[in-house]
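Continuing the series of single-chain predictions for the mutant panel. This is the parent chain; the variants come on the following pages.
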Amino acid sequence: MERRMGAFANSVTNAVARRPAVGRAGPALISLAILLVWAGVLIPAFLLPERLLLLGEQAAPLALVAIGQTIVVLIGGLDLSVGSVLTLSLVLGAGLAHGRNDLLPQAALACLATGAAIGVANGLLVVRLRLPPLITTLAMATIVEGAAWVYTNGAPNGSMPSLLQFAANGRWGIIPAADVIVGLVFLLAFLLLTRTVFGRRLYAMGANLRTAQLTGVRTDRITIIAYTLCGLLAAAGGLLLGGYIAVGSLKAGEAYILNSLAVVLIGGTSLSGGEGGVVGTLVGVAIFAVLTALLIQLGVPIALRSVLLAMIVIVSAVLQGRRIAT
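Parent structure:
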């Protein structure tokens, strides 16, 4: 028993050592700085504060989804249903609110509860049936996408209330309201992962699942909570995106599956679990937003942009694999 406890202590120590707030995000921060310099040289107006704030506003839904994805990846899982959950939340919110501010609380609560429930279902399928997260969440994505089509009958109706549109597009002074929302969610996620027992156990589980189980950590419960938070944040991202575009859309979430995983990888979080965090993910979102906007400004066709972004994901995964191997 003492040997097991010693192994667990070492596992926790190693996991904590590998998850500093900035350390793992260091390469991503350097990449972001280089990218901004490059963008400023090519397009001097690109670095205007107003333009950078606008990029943050546009990337806010992705940031929420990616924070949830990070929590799941840290335990060694992944969630391919986030795009479908985002879409369902968007069309459900528009359909329930019908553009009325007085109906927004009920509509938002229904969307967030639905996202959390889908996350619970993902977690239960993974821990009870021992299904691989890839298969589980891919199947769930299909089910949720079908639910969105059934709910809208293929034609989304309704619109988002003005309060939600302000949350997505409005400003408090010069600061976009969406950036404030992302900042608050980021802070809560950061504190959860770095300042709580749950966070320490989550990292330990990702670093060494078997050791965590042997020492009594309730890994099933942590897995369910992680997927629940991921579903909740995907739904929140859907509401924020809905406020940005003001109407429902059945295609809105398609890009968020790859994009959320991309920014998690770019930010330094390991797909094997136990390493990384939301600091790196937020930097990854910034890199993704700046690079996408720069390519658009340079007139790069959308097909080529997709190829370039996919290549960046592959390179990030390869570099990460080599770092783990060494």
